[in-house]
Amino acid sequence: MTEILTYEDPVGGARGWLAYDGSVSPLAAGGCRMRPGLTAEELSELAERMTLKQRVLGLNVDGAKCGLDHDPRAEDAERVLEGFLAFLHDELHNRFSMGSDMGTDWNQLQRLAARNGIPSVKYAIRKAQGLTDEEFSARMARLDDRVGMLTLSRRRAGHVLAHAAIGAARAAGVTGKVSAALQGFGTLGRAAAHGFLDEGVRVVAVADEHGCVVDPAGLDLSRMLHSPPGTPVPRMDVAGTRLPGDALFEMPADVLTLAAGADAVSAGHAAAPACPAVAVGANCGLSESAEGTLHDRGVLVVPDFIGGIGGSASMEALFGPPAPPTASEVLTSVAHLARRLVDDLFSTARRHGEPPRRAALRLADRAGVDPGAPPYGHSPYLTRSGV
Questions:
Q1: Contact 128, 93 (CB under 8 A)
Q2: CA dihedral angle for residue 340, residue 263, residue 98, residue 311, rounded to 10 degrees
């Protein structure tokens, strides 16, 4: 059952909502988005998807999603967002753990929350997990630590997507060095590229809304990651052939990784896949019909609520252990989790003779919720030794 709290900006009339999916768990988690045309119905659907992510991981957390029907580029966007956070003051103290999403930025949310007497947009974790303010702050501080070229906060979701993609390639029978094609080079795509770089994956193509750069021998990811965020991919100072963005879907690789917008793969490209595996990190990155066509063609697909599970997984890795982990330990843990989860996903799909999405729903259905237990520390995909 979905519960919706409704907000209206007192100055300009912008409307906002917080959607809770379920009311059993002690904590509900989800992002905050801002875009013109956003609706309560859309947030309700996204909150349900967040619940799936929590259940797949075996976490004692419900799904939630909040947002504003407003242009994040408008002159009054920050004022409107700050008023919305003030409206959510009690929820952020007691039940709702917020993250950033489309049209919002993590550092901005944290700054505006602090101005409204909210120590963190994730402060509700402190109460639900039974932590002191000092214990909560010590763990949250790890999100600002740099691991390589990015902070843990910026790396975590893409790191999980990268390892889910590698796991999908291995499940498809790839041995030796993995090759990948990457759609998207925003926050999620850059973090996935960093994960590929660390693991020695040969990335043969990267595309964004401006076009595609291709090198079958492997692109210089380090050079690309040193480009200022927001630089169009075709304009980056990196060797490779510049092609239209759709060329990405025709590049032979072991795994196609989707880290940008919705509905990325056309019916034509789904009917003639260039890769034996696809990992979806972007919300609704594949339409149901494209996903079904790929499955019929024998392509292994990691659905979006598995490939996009990095935010939830990182909270388990950060708050589940009895002692605060380092940022590097969090990344090691979520990589381990992603590989085990993808293995479980495809073995379940094979065992039941069903598409991976149906198998993922089966994994979510098996999880139970204990209202008296803390949110984190229960995932079957994380062991506390050796990670």
A1: no
A2: 20
- Using CB atoms within 10 Å of the CB of residue 17, give its burial: 0 to 12 exposed, 13 to 18 middle, 19+ buried: buried
Sequence-separated (6 or more) residues with CB below 8 Å from residue 13? none
User: How many CB atoms neighbour CB 136 within 10 A?
Assistant: 20
Side chain identity at 307, as an amino acid letter? G
**pLDDT score of 22:** 85
Count of C-beta atoms within a 10 Å radius of residue 323? 8
Q: How far is it, in rounded angstroms, from Cα 115 to Cα 78?
A: 12
Mean pLDDT of 310-316: 95
pTM of the model: 0.92
Helical (H) or strand (E) element with 31: strand 28-34
Closest to 238 measured CA to CA, from 210, 258, 208, 218: 218
State whether the Cα torsion 211-70-259-85 is positive or negative: positive
Q: Cβ–Cβ contacts within 10 Å for residue 327, how many?
A: 21
pLDDT of 320 higher than 80: yes
Q: What is the spatial distance between Cα 69 and Cα 77, in angstroms, rounded to a whole number?
A: 11
Specify whether the CB–CB gap between 339 and 181 falls below 8 A: no
Instruction: Find all residues with CB under 8 Å of 182, minimum gap 6, and list them.
Output: 189, 192, 193, 196, 203, 205, 206, 207, 248, 257, 259
Q: Which neighbouring-strand residues pair with 278?
A: 256, 301
Closest CA to 233 of 273, 267, 183, 275: 183
User: Beta strands 15-21 and 2-8: pairing type?
Assistant: antiparallel
Buried b (16+ CB within 10 A) or exposed e, 356-369: bbebbbbbbeebeb
Average predicted confidence (pLDDT) for the chain: 93
What pLDDT does 102 receive? 87
Is-contact 4 17, C-beta < 8 A? yes
pLDDT tens for 257-292 read: 999 888 889 899 999 999 999 999 988 889 989 999
Residue 5: C-alpha distances to residues 2, 68, 133, 300, 334 (Å):
10, 12, 27, 39, 32
Q: What is the DSSP letter of 183?
A: E
Please state the φ and ψ torsions of residue 53, each to the nearest 5 degrees.
-60, -45
